[in-house]
Design brief:
single chain; mainly alpha; 5 helices; 79% helix
Length: 150
């Protein structure tokens, strides 16, 4: 998460994601071909996993209570919220209904909690597996979606 601690970077991504969300919501499931649907489905799955990683991160760090952990928890919540909105938009484009998206989020959550044995003391397992890929996805969502719909 150090990559996101630079002042102003979050605000820049908010503006970028809002504009990009508007662009992708103009697409519909009928306007994309099967290759695009598969690419977007895979990407939506990655984003959903990161949403759950940041959800668990934010909750666990919040319980820590230290000033640094509280700051990191707030950052994780911002990333989670932005990625959630994108996951829902991409899911809508590919024709996923709310029930399917909820199931995808729940499966990711359950898998991560199982990996930690339902104990945040084992959070380093998630950190090792998800921190870098999710940070990279966060900064590249716009280009990844653009690639998928071309």
């Amino acid at each position: 998460m150090k990559a996101f601690r630079q002042k102003g970077i979050v605000q820049g991504y908010v503006v970028s994601l809002v504009l990009f969300a508007w662009m992708i919501t103009t697409l519909s499931a009928a306007e994309i071909n099967e290759d695009q649907r598969k690419a977007l489905n895979n990407l939506q799955h990655e984003i959903a996993n990161c949403v759950m990683f940041y959800t668990i991160s934010a909750a666990g760090l919040l319980k820590n209570g230290s000033p640094e952990a509280l700051k990191s928890s707030k950052s994780a919540s911002i990333y989670k919220d932005q990625m959630f909105e994108t996951a829902v938009a991409v899911g809508s484009i590919i024709g996923m209904n709310e029930k399917a998206m909820t199931a995808r989020f729940q499966m990711a959550f359950n898998q991560m909690m199982d990996e930690m044995d339902n104990n945040f003391v084992n959070y380093s397992i998630l950190l090792q597996q998800h921190a870098k890929p999710c940070a990279e996805l966060y900064v590249s969502m716009e280009s990844r979606i653009s690639e998928a719909i071309q």
